[in-house]
Specification:
The complex is a heterotrimer of chains A (473), B (127) and C (414). In chain A, 38% of the residues lie in helices and 11% in strands. By secondary structure, chain A is of the alpha/beta class. Chain A has two domains: 75-329, Aspartate Aminotransferase, domain 2, CATH 3.40.640; 331-458, Alpha-Beta Complex (Aspartate Aminotransferase, domain 1), CATH 3.90.1150. In chain A, the strands form three sheets. In chain A, strands 1-7-6-5-4-2-3 form a seven-stranded mixed beta sheet, sandwiched between helices. A three-stranded antiparallel beta sheet of chain A has the order 10-12-11, with helices on one face. A two-stranded antiparallel sheet of chain A has the order 8-9. In chain B, the strands form two sheets. In chain B, strands 1-2-3-9-8-5 form a six-stranded antiparallel beta sheet. A three-stranded antiparallel beta sheet of chain B has the order 4-6-7, with no helix packed on it. The mean pLDDT of chain B is 93. The chains are: A alpha/beta (473), B alpha+beta (127), C alpha/beta (414).
Chain lengths: 473, 127, 414
């Protein structure tokens, strides 16, 4: 393992070449001591290069993380976002080029998803959920719907949905799924009343299935006076196929760092634009980007706006990457992306059919779930063990233990950017692991064997927290 | 097979209750602790807090999950197990003894009838 | 159209394995009514064409330069090594480090970031980052609400109006409101350092008042400034860390940070990295205390943050490592020296005056006539109101640039 940067530190060593600062007064007590690493430039270069080698990115290999859409991150995206005019733009300037790009990005998203407008301000998917729920709240309050405080959330939903509800001042109510997947319409009907503000839905859902009753669901919710919220985490299956707005969703958030090829950055920065139908547009966060004649401007004049959700206009640097992707794909390329994402998922599923248990055997969309329940019962091997063993074969593991309604769940999303050979190799690895589970379960249970560290003791991490080198290191 | 003492009463949400000298002692079952795995934190109510039957009174946390605690009886919290603040693993090691969570006083004994017997609980968890 | 490795032969073979005849059959579950909608189209362009198009819109005359801007985003010097190392694709193409065995790079860097940002604020614990300064402050107030069980906060000194509005948007739905007076209902007292106008002032009075009423004291501080002054004895220090090696990016991505005293660990939102042991004597890093997080707490959550700004935190870690204490302090002193020079130079122009006090980067210049007109004509600063211009300098501004602006303003006739 690479050591910590602090361990390179030697008193008196330095990397920077700044001029000497003149003596100045701050009018406040001067800092007595400050302990940061004292290192040379080569130490910094070697250390962080060393750390990068202990990471696994999409450029390192296949990354079938369900619901995370780990598609290839095109290099042109990075180049465009790094242009000095863009990185150097100050938010109080009015750079026409950037405003035009943001405006065009919004227009393209509106076309693909069927919305009147998008706000690009939310900095991540969860931030988009929160923003979208505030829009629903503002809409109802504007119409005197003070009692509408209930948001219906299916049990298969992302855990963030109920959390976002709580933060937006809503109470979330769980709706059951049918045993074959999909919202239980009878259960939904029982919860629809005057207190319902809306329903949050992911479509395709987290089982990778298209909600085939979506039009009926939308009608029921709308009849009860509620709105529909589209969690766009799985939007990679729908582009050019079916638009959320046509499905009846009034509000929708997207994850540009999933569907639109912006990189995940090891946990951010992301971007979670929120699209709305016409009647919700007046409530969008301030400012929106408008165009008059050939001029683009930030419009703050939105009297019904829910207010600002970001210090400035969101993660513009991430939006630029999505813009490059949208332009290069065009609408036909986006449709192709969704088609091939779904083809890839079904191909893996077909190849693993005889070796693994598929609780939902039908044709899937861009992802699917496997249950390792029987492996656990018969051989004591869990979903986590399979995930860890995949590392030994050089893969990033799939999502595990989600959705909660599938026991010992492995959720696989290959994305469209993987070739047939890459999928075949991955399937071979999983088929071998299925054999190992029967013939050498201990090998799987004790995996990974080739990683630079073994399985960490997570209980110790919680019970004896070591979170700061200078206090415990 | 988990340990389900015959003399206790149970809830569907995996709490047990034992009556001792007019006080109800409450904890989580052996089955629940095994399902949760290593318990790292127990969030308990304040002494004096009033509880309603099946109402939420705290949470137990393992490394990766959080589970709400539901009171088997209405009443007032007369004591909480302070030892769990520094040794939450007691819930794993001795769920029916040193790993108790709260004590309730002033409860209505009638409410005990609405709880599960050891036999019923055993069925409930499919053992 | 790009980034698809499939050949026609591949597609046919794959469909055959699946047992379907066409790609359309994969979408049989999608109602016909939806599939038949005509979706508006836009044409794909090549990389070459895209670059040319961007070049053209960048060169449009409306893209005029405006300078001496600050107020939340600053044009600091970024050492060459920072973007080059953070630009390694093993870092930026990785997901959130949920699988520690193959994510030690990101995890170690975040642990280093947590440690260094704590060193600057003098507090015990930090999370892996938040969206930006404004949302970090909203999360800090949320923590104070969880700790105290109260739902009011006060802002002691001028805070960026955008921040104030973000706080309102994020906290109002939970009935957490800003008030004017500190009372026994106050959950948090916020002190801004430097304030919206760049002014540095003493917080001790507010700290004492917060203590007296059992409220938490939150400093919303620039971490660069904390390298040269003693950090406040706050319960939580949070804010914007864009000044630690990140470009302005038209406002984002930036880097929200949050540090606190260790007794508030359970109330801290967001991802946290900790060091532990593995089963073979190693000492790996992991995401820890995950039961605090939204995807596990669900409806009981007090924050919903998932994706944060991990890559920006990595950049800040590289920047802080490269600069060291000496480098950060040099940058802070250069900024202060330039601020002092600009205030003296511009404030002594006839009809103009600089606001009194010690300022860091931002300062207010009182103008003899419309501040907006001066701002437009000089292409500098930001008008706060009719007579006040907010200007900002960093270590990158030379005395020559400041002298040039003084020359423009000296000739100003209204």
């Amino acid at each position: 393992m690479e050591k910590l940067i602090f361990e390179y530190s030697r008193k008196g060593r330095k990397a920077h070449t700044l001029p000497v600062a003149p003596p100045v007064k701050f009018g406040l007590p001067a800092r007595k001591s400050l302990c940061l690493p004292e290192v040379s430039e080569i130490d910094v270069a070697r250390h962080y290069t060393g750390l990068s080698r202990q990471n696994y990115g999409i450029d390192s290999g296949f990354y079938p993380l369900g619901s995370c859409t780990m598609k290839y991150n095109p290099k042109i995206n990075e180049q465009i976002a790094a242009l000095a005019d863009f990185t150097g733009a100050h938010p109080a300037e009015n750079p026409r080029a950037l405003l035009k790009i943001l405006y065009d990005t919004e227009r393209m998203l509106c076309q693909i998803f069927g919305y009147a407008r998008f706000t690009l301000q939310p900095a991540a998917g969860a931030h988009g959920e929160f923003t979208g729920l505030l829009l629903i709240r503002a809409y109802h309050l504007d119409r005197g719907g003070v009692k509408r405080l209930k948001i219906l959330v299916p049990d298969a939903a992302h855990g963030t949905n109920p959390a976002s509800c709580a933060l937006a001042g809503f109470q979330s109510v769980t709706i059951k799924s049918l045993s074959g997947g999909g919202v239980d319409l009878e259960d939904l009907k029982q919860h629809l009343d005057d207190n319902v503000a809306g329903l949050m839905l992911t479509n395709p859902n987290t089982l990778g299935l298209f909600e085939k009753n979506i039009l009926e669901i939308a009608e029921l919710v709308h009849q009860a006076g509620g709105l529909l919220y589209y969690d766009g985490a799985n939007a990679n299956a729908t582009m050019g196929i079916a638009r959320p707005a046509d499905m009846g969703f009034d509000v929708c958030h997207l994850n540009l760092h999933k569907t639109f090829s912006a990189p995940h950055g090891g946990g951010g920065p992301g971007s979670g634009p929120v699209g709305v139908v016409e009647k919700l547009a007046p409530y969008l966060p301030r400012p929106v980007i408008d165009r008059r004649d050939d001029k683009y401007f930030l419009n703050d004049n939105l009297p019904k706006s829910i207010g600002k959700v970001h210090s400035f206009y969101g993660n513009v640097g991430v939006i630029l990457k999505a813009y490059a992707y949208l332009k290069i794909q065009g609408s036909s390329g986006l449709k192709r992306a969704s088609e091939l994402a779904v083809l890839n998922a079904n191909y893996i599923k077909a190849r693993l059919q005889d070796a693994y248990d598929f609780p939902y055997p039908q044709v899937c969309q861009h992802e699917f779930v496997i249950s390792a329940k029987n492996f656990k019962k018969q051989h004591g091997v869990t979903a986590l063990d399979i995930a860890k063993r995949l590392m030994d074969y050089g893969y990033h593991p799939p999502t595990v233990y989600f959705p909660l309604i599938v026991s010992e769940c492995l959720m696989i999303e290959p994305t469209e950017t993987e070739s047939k050979e890459s999928l075949d190799a991955f399937c071979e690895a999983l088929l071998k692991i299925a054999e190992e589970i029967k013939t050498a379960p201990e090998l799987v249970k004790s995996a990974p064997h080739n990683a630079i560290v073994g399985r960490p003791d997570e209980v110790k991490a919680v019970k004896e927290p070591d979170l700061n080198y200078f206090q415990t290191g | 097979m988990s340990n389900i003492p015959a003399e206790l009463k149970y809830t569907k949400e995996h709490e047990w209750v034992k009556i001792e000298g007019g006080i109800a002692i409450v904890g989580i079952t052996d089955h629940a602790q095994a399902e949760l795995g290593d318990i790292v934190f127990v969030e308990m109510p304040a002494v004096g807090a009033s509880l309603s039957q099946h109402g939420d009174f705290g949470v137990v946390e393992s490394v990766k999950t959080v589970s709400s605690l539901y009171s088997p009886l209405s009443g007032a919290v007369s004591a909480v197990n302070e030892a769990l603040n520094s040794a939450s693993e007691l819930v794993n090691k001795d769920p029916y003894g040193a790993g108790w969570i709260i004590k309730i006083q002033g409860f209505d004994a009638q409410e005990l009838n609405a709880l599960l017997s050891a036999e019923q609980y055993k069925k409930e968890i499919g053992e | 159209m790009a980034y698809f490795p499939h050949t026609e032969t591949d597609i046919e073979a794959m469909l055959q394995t699946i047992g379907l005849k066409s790609i359309a059959e994969l979408f049989a579950a999608v109602p016909e009514k939806l599939r038949s909608v005509k979706i508006p189209e836009f044409a794909p362009v090549s990389e070459l064409e895209l670059l040319a198009e961007i070049d053209e819109i960048r060169r449009a005359p409306e893209n005029s330069e405006h300078s001496f801007l600050g107020a939340g985003r600053y044009d600091h010097y970024i050492p060459a090594i920072v973007p080059q190392l953070a630009g390694r694709s093993e870092f930026y193409t990785a997901y959130t480090p949920y699988q520690p065995e193959i994510s030690q790079g990101t995890l170690t860097a975040i642990y280093e970031f947590q440690s260094m940002i704590c060193a600057l604020t003098g507090l015990d614990i930090a999370n892996a980052s938040l969206y930006d300064g404004a949302t970090a402050l909203a999360e800090a107030i949320g923590m104070a609400v969880s700790v105290t069980g109260r739902r009011e906060y006060i802002v002691a000194n001028p805070l960026h109006p955008n921040y104030r509005e973000v706080l309102k948007t994020h906290l109002m739905p939970r009935s957490i409101t800003e008030q004017k007076e500190i009372t026994p209902r106050t959950a948090a007292v916020i002190f801004v350092l430097p304030d919206y106008h760049g002014l540095l002032s003493d917080w001790i009075e507010y700290l004492q008042k917060a203590r007296m009423h059992g409220a938490l004291f939150i400093a919303c501080a620039d971490p660069l400034l904390l390298s040269v002054i003693e950090p406040p004895q706050a319960d939580i220090i949070a804010g914007e860390a864009q000044s630690l090696g990140l470009p302005q990016n038209f406002g984002g991505p930036a880097l929200g940070y949050l540090t606190a005293r260790k007794e508030f660990l359970r109330q801290m939102p967001g991802r946290i990295v900790g060091r532990t042991e593995d089963n073979r004597g190693g000492r790996p890093f992991v995401l820890t205390m995950q039961t605090r997080e939204q995807h596990i707490r669900r409806e009981k959550a007090t924050s919903n943050i998932c994706s944060n700004e991990a890559l920006c935190a990595l950049q800040a870690a590289i920047y802080m490592s490269y600069m060291g204490a000496d480098g950060l302090q040099t940058v802070a002193r250069l900024c202060k020296a330039n601020t002092d020079y600009a205030k003296q130079k511009l404030g002594s122009l006839p009809g103009f005056s600089a606001e009194q006090g010690e300022h860091f980067r931002d300062f207010v210049l009182r103008c003899p006539s419309s501040a907006q007109e001066i701002c437009n004509a000089a292409g500098a600063g930001m008008a706060l109101d009719d007579r006040r211009l907010l200007l900002s300098v960093t270590e990158k501004n030379t005395p020559a640039q400041i002298d040039y602006l003084a020359g423009v303003l000296a000739k100003w006739k209204n």
